[in-house]
Amino acid sequence: MNEENITVTRYATTHALKSQTTHKEGEWVETIGFHIPGDGGAALYHIEKHNKETQPNGADRVDLGNNWVAILHESKAVNYKMFGAIGDGENNDGVQIKLAHEYANTHHVPVVNLSGEYWIQDTHNIPILTNVSWGQTTLHINEKFNSKRQPRFVVQNDNPKKDLSQDQALKSALLEKLKPGVQLIPELAAYAGHLFTVEDEGDRIGIRAGNYSKRGWAREELFYVEEEGRIIGDIAWEFKNLTEITATPCNDNYLIIEGGGFYFSGDSGNEDSKGYHHHGFSVQRSRTIIREQWMGLEKGNRDISMEPRRGFYSFSGVYDTALENIRAMPWEKNRTDKDKVLAAGTYGIGGARMLNCAFRNLTAEGGWVAWGVFGTNLNKNFRVDNCRLNRIDVHFHCWNLHISNCTIGFKGIALTGGGNLLIENTTREGNNFVNFRRDYGAKWDGNIHIRGCRLKPSGKGRVSVLSYRPSDFEYQYPIGFGKTIKVEDLVIDYSAAPDSTASCWIMNNVSFSKTENNDRLFFPTHIEFRNITVQGRELGVRLLRLPSPHHYDLRSNGVYDGNQLHENCTMVFDNVQLEKLPPADLTDEEDDPMHLVIGDDNEQDYADALALYPKIRFSDCNNVTVYLGHCIASTTFERCTINTVQAPNLRGALNFTDCHFAPNIETLPESINEVQSTLGTRFTNCTVHSPIINGKSEPDKVNQIGFVEINKSVKHYHLNTALGNDVLNHLKETGRSLTPDFIAKLKSHHELEG
Q1: pLDDT tens digits, 193-208
Q2: Within this chain, do residues 138 and 236 fall inside the same structural domain, yes or no?
Q3: What is the domain extent for residue 199?
Q4: In the chain, how many H helices and how many E strands?
Q5: What would the pLDDT profile of 444-477 be if each residue is shown by its tens digit?
Q6: CB 424 within 8 A of CB 384
Q7: Residue 40 domain-assigned?
Q8: CB burial of residue 619 (10 Å; 0-12, 13-18, 19+)
Q9: How many CA atoms lie within 13 A of 559 on its CB side?
Q10: Is 127 part of a structural domain of the chain?
Q11: pTM, 2 dp
């Protein structure tokens, strides 16, 4: 037909179109609105005869009677009004919304619905395969119809997964080459652009401690393949077998869903349907970006659901996705009425098997009743930037997490996994900065770096920057405290809990270094705490407690042979505001009044060269109280004020440079300091002050400092040791003079001189 001869007949509405009885096949018609003129449902239609493929549906296929049907023809975009959505609060607009997306998917056009209010009742699995622009559209979701198995929206992958489990050549190559550190597997070159998951169902790991199933997880890896078989996504495990190999083709373009606000009724699903329910998006497509959205409860409603939610955004098996500029929400769990407490955690954002996913400018806060907004598993290369969230949580196997410029609320940061953990310029409002999840072994097998952050305790209980509290349990994988730890430029701000007198530990770890099954905990080779200050209370911080250094696994050898110590661990404590502590017996295993504890009162054999052989350096720290009992260590103190150093049977060395010995203690022991060491104890340019005992200066007790007796002995190596003015003034007042021999010993003394 000649295009110049085509005419388009205009009708006010689809009802007016249906009232016309003289339709002709091939006729083009146009409506000004769907229900009423100007309602936004204006569209172009083509008149055709009924057939199997053009059965009317009251939306994009309008029944005109007499075997005629008007077929929607839109090549640029569709909206919900074109499909008959009413938006009156009574109609289930979900039906028309689903039809609109099905049409958009079939005809490869976006959905552009920039305004209006719509109500979704008992409608699920609305498929999204094309871009969506919701603008200022409001979608009301009736949660009475939430389903355990069917989400409201499904962002579908364009291509199906490929089961490669029977490809023996590929399986053999993966078993040989898939291991930590691998960057290239040439046998995967043909699968560039695919997301791989591999697992060994017969090798169960991550057994969950506590009142949970003990089935655990299949050993599993998730990675993306680039050109030439380049691997994206660090590999953590090696495999003895592979029972499943799946490759998912990833789209070569980004799908963008933007705009819109969502109101929820807050109801429970069907009372007979117990467990986790969907109420939002299931994102199954890689390279999906969702942005500029808001969600909340209907005005006047509250969350009364007795069933947990999977997360309004739930990601599954995806690569390179993002949430941006979104107001999300956590959901209620721990209500005051115990009969209304949910049996399981309920989430605002969730998912599993996520690689290279980013979350930017999200807000999701709540009080103590709300559960954590974020709950995921198997989340690798996870980035959170410029967000305010009440929790970030990866239950099982987080690998590489970067948190920057965020505020994390009362529910905190809870993790297990490994790789690089970097948290910077972030505030945490609660008593633990990072809580490594006890139920999965509190493990982090990688590097930890916290810099420029602020911890704001919210209660009077114990505070921890890094909390490692695994159970003595068989998790079926190695557990431990990281490869390296660096905490710098940290402020601990007690403005919300100024009356707190509880201890604050930078590293709060369990006392055991091997389990009852003789599995050894791995331990960092480098620990560095620098520039840590406290605001809002006078009490400072404590460092860490390692009463059993003998059985850790450092994964590198240390040596002590009685002649030299070759360390396998470095600990640096620089400019840390320490708590003023009196020394005490090591009776409280969980809260020793010491800043650093290594060893205990009992001598034990070291397991082997992989045990803990540290080199320790304190610099610019005050009120230092240290216990190094029956252990191997080399320790240096520079420009520090020493309260007490107790080092019974220390195998190693002690070095003090430009330090002030100023004990402030409650009771006077026989020797305030015990600093004999097998490789020598050295003092350079140090000053000895009067002990303060129970708040009172006692200069006549200076002889019990542990290494100096006035006019008698000077023990160990000394160069330019001085007596404080408080001691000198006391000697002057009591008419005592220092002997030349004693002064000479303070000036220079060698251990061999006796």
Answers
A1: 999 999 999 999 999 9
A2: no
A3: 162-249
A4: 5, 52
A5: 999 999 999 999 999 999 999 999 999 999 999 9
A6: no
A7: no
A8: middle
A9: 4
A10: yes
A11: 0.94
